Every structure is written in C-alpha cells, then in structure tokens.
Amino acid sequence: MNGSYDPHSGSDIRKMALASLFAALVSVGAYARIPVPFSPVPITLQVFFIFLAAAMLGARWGTLSVIVYLLLGIIGLPVFSGGSSGLGILLGPTGGYLVGFVMAAFLIGILSGKKGTSSVLLNAMFMLAGLCIIYVAGISFLAYAAGITFENAIRLGVLPFLPADLLKVVLASVIASKYSI
C-alpha cells in the first residue's frame, strides 16, 4: 500500500473509525473540566485522550483525530472546553494549547511508531515529549494573547497542571502499552 489511502482496505476503514472515536473522546474530555481560579486554562481530559490516540493510532491517524476535533470546534460544534466553539477560541488565550494538541499527537505518533509500543516507560517518555510541545505552544500563545510575561504564563498555564498531566501520562502510557490497535 506504500502509505497511500486504499478505500477498500479494512485496516484504513478501521483506523478512520477509531480516529473518529478518538475525536469524539477528546470532545467529551473537554467537558470533564475543572476550572483553575487564577488561570484561563482549565484542567480537562482532552490531553489524556490525545495521548492515547497518538500512541495507539500512530502519527497519521492520531493527528487526524485531533485535527477532526479542532475542525468540529471551528465550525461551531461545542467541543472545546466548557462547551465553547468557533475560530475565536483558537485565537484566544487557550488557543496555543489546542494547536499544541496537533503537534503533540504527531510527535507522539512518530515516536511510538505506527503500531505503538508495549513499553510503559517508552510510551511515558513519548507522551512527556508531547506534553512539552503542548506546554510550549500553550504558554507562548497565552503570553501573547493575555499580554503577560512568559514567566507568568508558565505560572498560570503550566505549574498548576503538572500533577494532573503527569497522572494522565502515567495512565495513558499504561493503557497504550496494554492495548494495541
């Protein structure tokens, strides 16, 4: 098949269905939301499902699932955190995190390979790399959109989220290593 799309391939149809499922899970993860009083960025489960999509589906399909999620939000479906939607969300203080989701999914997918890996430690390392991408993109745009320093952006957009995000890395890496798609 040489990486090209074959509409008659059961494997491609299965991957499309799973990518759609993960796009839906990321959307649902946006509703599992814990507001952080001093930050415009809430704690959600989106990152958890992005980690799983990327590690289990690989770069192509994992990234595609995140792009589908973003497109659903851009066209007006209430799939972003708190049921928000629209292009304005991507241009607001949390937009960098959303863009970072795509880059992280691609990086994790590339690192874990098409079939994923059964090593919890390797999965965790790949997901930590993806988390760094999300944080860098997120705080860069947070600093710009909110007109704050990078130091304040790190205080508002990274430090409060580290414990929960590290837990998501651990759980997602265990799940991804146990279940191969």
How would you portray this structure in words?
With 181 residues, this protein is mainly alpha-helical. It has a single domain, classed as Orthogonal Bundle (Arp2/3 complex 21 kDa subunit ARPC3), CATH 1.10.1760.20. The protein is built from 7 helices and no strands. The chain is globular. The protein starts with 9 loop residues before the first helix and ends with a helix.
Provide key terms for this protein:
181 residues, Arp2/3 complex 21 kDa subunit ARPC3, mainly alpha
Write a short abstract of this structure.
By secondary structure, the chain is mainly α.
| β-strand number | 0
Q: How confident overall, as mean pLDDT?
A: 90
SS-based class: mainly alpha
- Evaluate the radius of gyration: 16 Å
SSE order and pairing:
Layout: H1 10-31, H2 46-74, H3 87-91, H4 95-112, H5 120-146, H6 150-157, H7 162-178
